[in-house]
Design goal:
- This protein is an alpha+beta fold.
- It is built from 10 helices and 17 strands.
- The radius of gyration is 21 Å and the shape is globular.
- The N and C termini lie far apart (44 Å).
């Protein structure tokens, strides 16, 4: 780990407490001038830091690998973590090197600058304003079952956010608060020939995103924990609670092959069931009424021009409300 990364990890671990530049110089066995140089580099890279009058302040709580690993151990969760200060995409890293990672590995980063969403959409956010992680899993399941990981993850996110906000699920992969997106999921698979090599579940949670950070085009579609609660909430606690909830659902599913626990929660938290929606595929758009979510995690709809019930299982479509995002 570089001196810069060691310094910033120490600052993150000390949040919300302030410490002097001299304190960090003593801890890292560096000169005061070296610490000031490292701090200036971090500020130039747009890290949320203030330092003046010999005092160093982190303006928002951020992911600390040391805190995450400590909480995982404390809660006896069988996950290991890897941290990357800056990375194009945690999901891309996980998929590219999946053979090198063990089952239940969590990839974390301060800054993902080529993040991706469903249907190839790209996104990024200011450093410290969002949680970005990827879970690497290596279950023995069929390809058909793999799609259930998105619903399992959605249920776990709703549970993790429950102490702070009342979240709902916009099937298949958006977590909603007050009709605005607060978190998203991207589940991807890796195959070696016909053999499933692993599943990567990417999660992004808007934690300290302010209203000024959201573009005018997304102002009616996006929100954050800061906007909803008026508080900076510790992302380390949220991540660990998410992993704990995920593991409870995942372990039960592995033992019983029964998805009903997390599917039931997805149904209760669904923002779509009972509503009319527009299903878009390419240039096509069809009006439908949402009836249910089945045990395979598929959305059951009834198109207005068709009396039969149709399960939506392809990801090559988008869902919108009749006149808005939902």
């Amino acid at each position: 780990m570089s001196s810069q990364n060691k310094l910033f990890e120490l600052i993150k671990m000390n949040y919300p407490h302030q410490h002097s530049i001299d304190y960090y110089a003593e801890k890292l066995l560096l000169s005061k001038g070296e610490i000031i140089g490292l701090l200036q580099e971090l500020v130039d890279l747009h890290y949320p830091l203030n330092f003046s009058n010999n005092t160093v302040t982190l303006t928002v709580p951020m992911i600390s690998q040391s805190k995450i690993q400590s909480l995982l151990s404390e809660w006896r969760l069988p996950y290991s973590s890897l941290f990357f200060p800056r990375i194009p995409s945690t999901n891309s890293k996980a998929l590219t090197d999946i053979s090198e990672f063990s089952d239940r590995t969590v990839l974390l980063t301060d800054y993902q600058y080529k993040g991706k969403g469903r249907l190839g959409r790209e996104w990024q956010s200011p450093i410290g304003s969002a949680v970005t992680l990827s879970l690497i899993l290596k279950p023995v399941i069929s390809g058909e079952q793999a799609v259930l990981f998105t619903q399992l993850t959605a249920a776990a996110l709703v549970q993790a956010l429950k102490p702070y906000v009342s979240a709902e699920i916009k099937w298949p992969n958006d977590i909603i608060v007050g009709n605005k997106k607060i978190a998203g999921i991207l589940t991807e698979t890796s195959f070696n020939g016909s053999q499933l090599e692993g599943i990567v579940v990417g999660v992004g949670i808007n934690t300290s995103l302010s209203k000024n950070d959201i573009s005018s085009s997304l102002a009616e579609k996006a929100t954050s924990l800061l906007i909803e609660t008026g508080m900076h909430i510790d992302p380390n606690q949220i991540v660990t609670e998410f992993i704990r909830s995920f593991e409870v659902f995942y372990r039960e599913w592995q033992l019983t092959n029964d998805s009903s626990d997390f599917i039931t929660l997805c149904k209760k938290a669904s923002v779509l069931i009972g509503k009319e929606i527009i299903v878009r595929t390419g240039e096509s758009a069809r009006l439908a009424h949402v009836r249910d979510i089945n045990s395979l995690g598929e959305l059951i709809v009834q198109y207005t021009d068709d009396e039969s019930l149709t399960p939506l299982r392809t990801l090559d479509f988008s869902i919108r409300g009749l006149s808005s995002y939902i």
